[in-house]
Automatic annotation (TrEMBL):
It comes from the Eukaryota. The chain crosses the membrane at residues 241-259, 280-299, 321-342. GO terms for cellular component: membrane. It comes from Penicillium angulare. Residues 160-247 form the Wax synthase domain. It is a multi-pass membrane protein. It is found in: Membrane. Belongs to the wax synthase family. This is Wax synthase domain-containing protein.
């Protein structure tokens, strides 16, 4: 990675705060490249990294003004709510068998020739799994890490911007992956893809060929990483659907860009404002695309881990104090987040 995207001691010295001018300070700062792959606060900061939440910022200047105590209190409140939601989801999963469950250790390829009702069920299930379950699981782990590092005084609150963007912005596939979803791997994946497209293949830049080839290699790398995770989890390579799921996103980008370009030429509209009906069409498109293509990704995972054996959290309060109590806590804490801490979705 350093050969493709060089970074030496001089770069570290220029980027590091004044307190890290010593060798030890630079060494510790450099080690954080592994902790903070988004490069927050440096010239290498990943494109699409969310801005600090409004609650932490001055209403006039927009500058980050929240104290460490305020930051930790809000992060802890959100983490407690996320834990309660995951607890409820795990409890609900244990009460039923999935519609596509098979005997343990037996894998099959997903069926595509199914009824309309089945597709609607899949789209709803996959969308919920992606936008709610997947997001909360990723976000809660990073939020816990932020509480630890900021709480121990290793980092300032401003060094931990939100991991995910706002769900309301995910009305195109590009915004879904480039704005809403986490950008933890973006600097690494884009550096390698640009090296392949421009340094190895020498594709003309800018060009449509270079543009979509670059996108393809970004998602191919992500697919290979997730394939390794599938294999570690026990999913055989031949049944892992991560490669088709991620790489076909390139086709989705092409369709999306093509439709937008045709619309601009037909209507002559170049306005940047997004009307309500455009957002509605966009949300429908994104949900439909993810709901259908995620079949490759979700199907083997459901067979590998049936709903009755789903494990999102290490300890379930629902099993000990009851799901109703946990649900009540989730509702009350959710309202507190909205009205007291300016919760953002």
């Amino acid at each position: 990675m350093l050969l493709i995207n060089p970074l030496d001691a001089n770069d570290i010295t220029r980027e590091a705060p004044a307190r890290t001018k010593t060798f030890t300070g630079r060494f510790l700062y450099a080690s954080e490249l592994f902790r903070c792959p988004r490069g927050v606060g440096t010239p290498r900061q990943a494109k699409g990294t969310p801005s600090p939440v409004v609650y932490y910022c001055d209403s006039k200047s927009g500058a980050f003004t929240a104290s460490r105590r305020t930051y930790l209190l809000r992060q802890s409140a959100i983490l407690a709510w996320e834990y309660a939601v995951l607890d409820l989801l795990q409890f609900a999963s244990h009460q039923q068998e999935g519609p596509e469950s098979t005997p343990e250790g037996v894998f099959t390829y997903p069926e595509w020739n199914v009824s309309l009702e089945k597709w609607i069920e899949r789209i709803i299930t996959h969308t919920f799994a992606w936008f709610v379950v997947g997001r909360i699981m990723c976000d809660s782990r990073c939020r816990l890490a932020s509480i630890i590092f900021v709480g121990l005084g290793f980092h300032s609150p401003s060094e931990w911007p939100p991991v995910f963007g706002k769900m309301k912005d995910a009305y195109t596939l590009r915004k879904l992956w480039g704005t809403f979803w986490h950008q933890m791997l973006r600097p690494t994946l884009t550096a390698v893809s640009k090296w392949i497209t421009c340094g190895v293949l020498h594709l003309p830049k800018p060009s449509l060929l270079e543009r979509y080839t670059n996108v393809f290699f970004v998602f191919l790398q992500s697919a290979l990483l997730h394939t390794m995770l599938d294999m570690v989890a026990g999913i055989p390579l031949e049944f892992s659907g991560t490669v088709p799921f991620f790489t076909i996103t390139t086709l989705g980008f092409m369709i999306e860009d093509g439709v937008q370009e045709v619309y601009k030429r037909v209507t002559g509209s170049n306005t940047q404002a997004i009307s309500i009906w455009k957002r509605a069409v966009g949300y429908t498109w994104v949900i439909s695309w993810v709901g259908v293509t995620a079949t490759w990704f979700v199907h083997p995972n459901m067979q590998n881990t049936p709903p009755s054996k789903t494990s999102f959290i290490p300890y379930s309060f629902s099993d000990h104090v009851g799901a109703q109590s946990v649900a009540g806590f989730a509702v009350i804490s959710g309202l507190v987040l909205i009205f007291r801490f300016g919760g953002e979705v």
